[in-house]
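USER:
Make up one protein:

ASSISTANT:
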Amino acid sequence: MPIHLQPALNTSGKNLWQKISTFALTFAVCLSSSLSWALDSDRQQPLEIAADQAELNEGEGFSIYSGNVIITQGTMKIEASQVKVTFNDQGINTMLATDGHHDGLAYMSQQSEPSATGKSELMEAWGERIDFQINTEYLTVLGRAKLIQQGNQFSGHQILFDMPKDSVKASGGQGKRVNMTFLPNPN
């Protein structure tokens, strides 16, 4: 797990690495246990975080990864300029990804469990901010937001995706419209 720490962190090296290792393990367990929409096999995969810098503040309950952040676990992938993770004693609460290398947008993708027909879908989201509420599996995409879910495309200023309910709400914001493209039913 490549993590490069900012020189500003003022903690003994051994103690700091123990805290980071403990946090990374907690992060992996909490993230993998709460993603029911994800592939079961993803939950068994290691969580990998790569960033130019990392800050861990256990007392305040957050960590910040910045500089070309890439988080992967199986088919789940998050790419952003910065990702802030909040947590408490029960585990991870939120992941907030901002900006990125996709036309300035953060990016998230996840493969779904296969349907009754055996087909698995790829959910993809882009936005200036992607806020993922881990426990409720609720995704909020803000600013030049785009979501592709089951092949259908939604774009606007804000997109709310309730994963367990398979429900999408979109708004254009400031007098703008929402754009949607729905694929024809193959039956």
Notes: Confidence is low (pLDDT under 50) at residues 1-12, 16-37. The longest strand covers residues 76-88. The two ends are 45 Å apart (CA to CA). Residues 13-34 form the longest helix (22 residues).
